[in-house]
């Protein structure tokens, strides 16, 4: 999915291009809780490749980086800020640092995604003894607003985007580490830095060998050795077959009427199909089915608070409970429970009185706890939230809360022993046994 400019406003001094607002970019998402799971990262990678597969039939992006990969509130990837005929394709040897800073490093983070073939490097100008024999040349004056006409007329090609994507993937799977800075990339271009040394960095930071192999192919200094986007998509060791179905669903949602009820009704029907596809898909070591369930959860939770009819709200609760059966503790506590408890503030008594029941049903599905950080889940989070119902103006809500108290405390005790058992067995690291 590509996001283009809707309007361009030009004056004598400035040109402003505007586009639709999108929730956040990938750079911000990597540092936002709840953090992306490995499965979600692979799903994002799949979406980027699908977009590039489509756009490379017509044009290359030219400035692929985390800031230009946008994400909706439910995790749908949108590619923006294409640089075709806006930024120079090649950076000249004389002014490479100035051009790079002006066009490609507006964030001042010094992360470099430009393909090596876009940096014009003349080896005769890199050694002082060679410079003596060269006739003196004046530094070219470049109007950065117009770009260098000579360098700008050379078309971008898909392999340039593929190199940039390799750098992006490295950042995604290392939670923001930078593979290349400009000085490092220049050394790579001059063969002062070997491909083997870069490959070593990749493999030291990423455990998944299949992802490492993909990155290493993408950042190959020879553009002819890089594959096309559609060829990477054919790797079923990375991308499970149900991603194709998920992407069709995502595209349909992107084109649906933005009404929360319409989106909810559509995804409700597709959820059952997706679960069947997941169950019938052969299990492969690198595949994480959580990514598919999180895909559903992200869509449902993005519209849940905007639902108006009680029927849809109750269907939302039931769907979340059913999906939670396939998920681990971290996802249940971080991705589902907060949205269930949000309905404590719902304006309808019939919905508020259901919250204690559905909270119990959700925590019943927790059989293993992985982090000591979740030890005080009931005392610090669930009980303070539900306590707000003690003073609810509706008698029915207060009665339902009172009915749920014994089972809530029973679940709290069971959860306490799960934590204690995890600490004693060494599965949960802690200096204090609860």
Can you characterise this structure?
The protein is mainly alpha-helical. The chain folds into 3 domains: 23-122 and 154-234, Transferase(Phosphotransferase), domain 1 (Orthogonal Bundle); 240-327; 329-433. It contains 19 helices and 5 strands. It has helices at residues 26-30, 38-55, 96-104, 128-131, 149-152, 158-173, 182-189, 195-205, 209-218, 229-233, 242-255, 260-280, 290-304, 310-324, 329-341, 349-352, 355-364, 377-386, 395-425, and strands at residues 7-10, 15-18, 24-25, 69-71, 77-79. A hairpin with a 4-residue loop joins β1 (7-10) and β2 (15-18). The chain is globular, with a radius of gyration of 26 Å. Residues 122-153 have low confidence and may be disordered.
Extract low-pLDDT stretches.
122-153
CATH homologous superfamily caption of the largest domain: Transferase(Phosphotransferase) domain 1
* CATH fold category name of the largest domain: Transferase(Phosphotransferase), domain 1
Q: Give me the Rg, rounded.
A: 26 Å
Mean pLDDT: 87
Q: Please describe the biggest sheet, giving its number of strands, its sense, and whether it closes into a barrel.
A: 3 strands, antiparallel
Structural class based on helices, strands and sheet pairing? mainly alpha
Pfam family, one: VPS15-like_hel
Domain Protein kinase: 1-243
Keywords: Kinase, Repeat, Serine/threonine-protein kinase, Transferase, WD repeat
Organism: Henneguya salminicola (Myxosporean)
């Amino acid at each position: 999915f590509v996001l283009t400019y809707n309007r361009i406003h030009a004056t004598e001094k400035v040109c402003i291009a505007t586009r639709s607002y999108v929730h956040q970019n990938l750079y911000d998402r990597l540092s936002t809780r709840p953090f992306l799971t490995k499965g979600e990262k692979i799903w994002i990678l799949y979406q980027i490749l699908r977009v590039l597969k489509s756009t490379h039939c017509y044009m290359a992006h030219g400035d692929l980086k985390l800031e230009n990969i946008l994400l909706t509130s439910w995790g749908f990837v949108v590619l923006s800020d294409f640089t075709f005929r806006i930024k120079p394709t090649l950076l000249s040897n004389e002014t490479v640092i100035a051009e790079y800073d002006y066009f490609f490093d507006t964030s001042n983070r010094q992360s470099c995604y430009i393909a090596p073939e876009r940096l014009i490097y003349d080896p005769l100008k890199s050694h002082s003894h060679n410079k003596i024999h060269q006739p003196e040349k004046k530094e070219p004056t470049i109007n950065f607003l117009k770009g260098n006409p000579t360098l700008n007329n050379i078309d971008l090609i898909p392999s340039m985007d593929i190199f940039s994507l390799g750098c992006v993937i490295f950042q995604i799977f290392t939670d923001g580490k930078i593979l290349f800075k400009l000085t490092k990339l220049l050394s790579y271009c001059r063969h002062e830095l070997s491909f083997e040394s870069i490959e070593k960095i990749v493999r030291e930071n990423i455990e998944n060998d299949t992802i490492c192999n993909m990155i290493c192919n993408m950042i190959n200094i020879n553009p002819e050795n890089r594959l096309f986007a559609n060829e990477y998509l054919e790797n079923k060791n990375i991308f499970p077959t149900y991603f194709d179905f998920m992407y069709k669903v995502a595209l349909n949602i992107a084109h649906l009427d933005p009404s929360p009820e319409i989106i909810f009704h559509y995804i409700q029907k597709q959820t059952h199909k997706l679960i069947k596809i997941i169950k019938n898909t052969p299990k492969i070591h690198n595949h994480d089915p959580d990514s598919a369930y999180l895909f559903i959860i992200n869509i449902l939770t993005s519209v849940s608070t905007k639902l108006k009819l009680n029927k849809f709200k109750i269907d939302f609760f039931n769907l979340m409970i059913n999906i939670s059966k396939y998920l681990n503790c971290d996802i249940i506590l971080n991705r589902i429970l907060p949205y269930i408890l949000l309905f404590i503030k719902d304006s309808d008594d019939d919905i508020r009185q259901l919250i204690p029941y559905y909270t119990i049903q959700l925590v019943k599905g927790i059989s293993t706890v992985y982090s000591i950080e979740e030890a005080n889940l009931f005392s610090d989070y669930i009980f303070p939230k539900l306590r707000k119902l003690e003073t609810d103006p509706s008698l029915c809500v207060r009665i339902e809360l009172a009915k749920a108290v014994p089972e809530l405390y029973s679940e709290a005790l069971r959860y306490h022993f799960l934590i204690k058992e995890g600490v004693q067995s060494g599965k949960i690291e802690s200096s204090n046994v609860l």
